[in-house]
Known about the structure:
Blueprint: E1 2-5, H1 10-22, E2 27-30, H2 41-46, E3 54-56, E4 62-64, H3 66-74, H4 85-109, H5 118-138, H6 151-160, H7 174-184
Parallel strand pairs: 1-2
Antiparallel strand pairs: 1-3, 3-4
Helix pairs in contact: 1-3, 1-6, 4-5, 4-6, 5-7
Amino acid sequence: MKLFDxxxxxxxxxxxxxxxxxxxxxxxVAVDIFGGDTLTDEFAAINPARTTPVLEDPPxxxxxxxxxxxxxxxRRTPYLPDDPQVYRWLFYEQADVVPxxxxxxxxxxxxxxxxxxxxxxxxxxxxxxxxxxxxxxxARRAFFVGDAYSVADIGIYGYVHVAHEAGLDLSxxxxxxxxxxxxxxxxxxxxxxxxxxxxxxAGAGRSIYD
Length: 210
């Protein structure tokens, strides 16, 4: 099993977190997004969308999209309960969490937005709407689906745990903060998410974002 990933990507971190908690051995293939690695014909052959992560499992078979990889890896494990709400929250994460706090974090850190830009205001407002919804949901339960930790939590945790890097204040979201602690207490938890490197800054590299 190989994971083509980028160390500073929260989407990639989600997959690495599940693999660590599953205790699965795999080969990690570093992809320098801003060094032009995803722009090559070789990478397009494994993912025409030119994004990470990509899981190769079995050899020669490639699965793209972080949450699709989570669902694939979690099959027949406690991390994928028999409850369709898991799918609901994973779709919600990509549709609402990533474009708001995920997009805000990336664009602020790499200089693609300034904090006072209209698009930053829009993404910030959307982020607080997401956090409010999360807080109401988690006020009544320990985890997002049922009573147990699952890939739904992993998917959402990937971005919410670094919300402060987007300048978001979590102090009024007590249920979200308690949930973050519960996730970090799960067996096998680890956090190897790295900071964005210098070549990720606007104009400094070559990527699909430039």
